[in-house]
Amino acid sequence: MSKRRVVITGLGTVCPVGLNAQESWNNILAAKSGIGKITRFDSGPYASKIAGEVDGFKVTNYLSPKDARRVDLFIHYGMAAAIEALSDAGIQKNPLFANRIGVNIGSGIGGLPLIENNSKIVESSGPKKISPFFIPGAIINMISGNLSIMYGLKGPSLAMVTACTTATHCIGDSARLIEYGDVDLMVAGGSEATISPLGVGGFAAARALSIRNDDPEKASRPWDSDRDGFVLGEGAGVLVLEEYEHAKNRNATPEVSIIICVLIVLLISSTGPSFTNLIRSLSRTSEASSNFSATIGT
Predict the structure, then answer these.
(1) For the chain, what is the largest distance between any 2 Cα atoms, rounded to a whole number of angstroms?
(2) Phi, psi of 217 (to 5 degrees)
(3) Which of 146, 152, 219, 289 could form a disulfide with 94 if both were Cys (CB 3.0 to 4.6 A apart)?
(4) What is the pLDDT of residue 291?
(5) Which residue ranges make up each domain of the chain?
(6) pLDDT tens across 10-24, in order?
């Protein structure tokens, strides 16, 4: 069976350097940093006091105030990025081919701040004060679920969870669904919002975060010999993936083709990568295509 060609026809972003894809790209080209001192809570007792916070985001541009109150911040970001991506791709609500459109937007952790807040409610006021919307407002698959409801999409509604590589795997698996004819279009990506006491405290306890608190804009340096950890950030990135002929028939503008995605476990322990598996991954990718790129996370 010959695989179908997959192209990107829409993109959306909410991140520390921009509230949409164009603004984010312009600020990246201008070398603008989105990292600064934590403002969400008192970071005084924490070893790491810096993060990449999203500034100026207004969820009511995307959701009603009532709906926004019921869900965690990571869902706000994911919905905003997905709505932008669908608009960029020219997809309206309740499309005629809704049964051929799916969603796969994941998150590494999900609604951690909402979980923290409801834990405080239990401790202070008892279990009867927990909101009935707590669970659906915190679980990871509800970006995909809410977006499918909002747009009337009737294809697969999925949410992968693979830590730092979540969005990459969501995009890769979505491309495969299109390649093999299960759907014609997928909305795929990831969202995260864990700049909270537990989120920062948990990563700091693992000594994973940078403590370059006096120079936040230069703290994120993944390939530098003086690297002392990563900087916790937040936001969402979503793509619209589409079968090439389908996109062409509706006069959509393909941005780029998805060549191939190879998913292989690289870890041999909780922190140690296997370079043998890395070589195997690159080998499999090169065998499948002479024109390839590899995205790797741990």
Answers:
(1) 61
(2) -70, -15
(3) 152
(4) 44
(5) 6-258, 260-298
(6) 999 999 999 999 999
The contacts of residue 33 (CB under 8 Å, 6+ apart) are 17, 216, 217, 220
Position 135, amino acid = I
Which pLDDT belongs to residue 189? 98
Instruction: Check: CB of residue 14 under 8 Å from CB of residue 81.
Output: yes
**Residue 296, token pair as written in the block:** 């790797």
Closest by CA position to 239, among listed 248, 230, 251, 252: 252
Q: Is residue 236 within 8 Å of residue 24, measured between CB atoms? A: no
pLDDT tens for 161-216 read: 999 999 999 999 999 999 999 999 999 999 999 999 999 999 999 999 999 999 99
* pTM score over 0.85: yes
